[in-house]
Amino acid sequence: MGNREIIDQGDRYLLPTYARYPLALVRGQGMRVWDADGRQYLDFLAGIAVCNLGHCHPRVVEAIRDQAGRLLHVSNLYYIEPQGELAQLLVEHTFANKVFFCNSGAEANEGAIKLARKFQKDRGEPRRVEILSAAQSFHGRTLATLTATGQDKVKVGFDPLPAGFRHVAYDDLGALEAAVGPETAAILLEPIQGEGGVRVPSPGYLRAVRELCDARGALLVFDEVQVGMGRTGTFLACEHEGVAPDLCTLAKGLGGGVPIGALLTTEVAGRSFGPGSHGSTFGGNPLATAAALATVRTIVGEGTLEHCRAMGAYFADALRSLAASCPSVTGVRGRGLLLGVELRTGVLARDVVQGLMARGFLAGTAGDQVLRFAPPLIVEKEEIGALLVALDDVLQGL
Length: 398
Known about the structure:
Elements: H1 3-13, E1 25-29, E2 32-35, E3 40-43, H2 46-49, H3 58-68, H4 81-92, E4 98-102, H5 105-122, E5 130-134, H6 143-148, E6 165-168, H7 173-179, E7 184-189, H8 205-216, E8 219-223, E9 247-250, E10 261-265, H9 267-270, H10 286-301, H11 304-324, E11 329-335, E12 338-343, H12 349-358, E13 361-362, E14 364-365, E15 370-373, H13 381-396
Parallel strand pairs: 3-13, 5-6, 5-7, 7-8, 8-9
Antiparallel strand pairs: 1-2, 2-3, 4-10, 9-10, 11-12, 12-15, 14-15
Helix pairs in contact: 3-10, 4-10, 11-13
């Protein structure tokens, strides 16, 4: 089928929960994807920060093929070889001592919320049930993670929402200090807000939050679903500030394109999840963990992080140079290869995305006024240069 046939089929049979672009992608390799009509695009969104190694990376494809020919699923009633190997690798490259696997970022955040509350009850603090999160945050689409999300637009129509959640301004230590009280179980934060506009907090903010949690008896939870897995040039984004949480959630880039999520925890916090306290039928199954194992090994072992830092700095500098001569751009922010371009009032990011798509480039939005770039970590200068030429052309036409 061609683009039109695939689009018509989807419109007829799928629930309209996405404002989809009129494009049907059918093949990918590295930085490139092709639509059903054979047109090629350079992908500067990577499936929303999922394909961190690009599309169909050879090591990931090989791992999937090999595992699919041996064992797809058995359930967590038994030990799973690649699951244990993946957990060990994540522990060795992060603050964590233990790992729980699930299927998505929302599930990982659900697990973190459950564990934070159970931890407080186990230590004799049953009234500590409140989860503090930030305005403009995004933590998932389940009822609990939707409530934790600091954006009202995603909550419309889903009342009553679960109790025990409150929001404070992001990057405002004073507001957070005033909000933390005897009912606070945990503070849930993105080290960089992705969906909320690619917002990087002030230097020292995350460390101050860590100190606040230690002083007030709350757990610190970092949602690294979008910003982890090397996206910012370090394995976890919190490493830039030298801060370790008690709990951390991963998904998106973890599986190289295969759905998998993870809840990372310290030894102390993790003790509150014993047999029967939490679970997942598909979480960490052989196929998903084999794909993730190949992904993580490649990210930490083949210079991917160094390349991300170099390309991220190059891309950000080039975007700022473009912004200096373009009245449609009011700012550039981000870290590594998660970058946001803030547009002046009246210029919609979605319109720019559509202009780029017409020129053979895929990008995303992070709100109405922010253009988001999250290319595979393997992107090269030549590809960035081509994108910048197209972006300048689109912006000059606005």
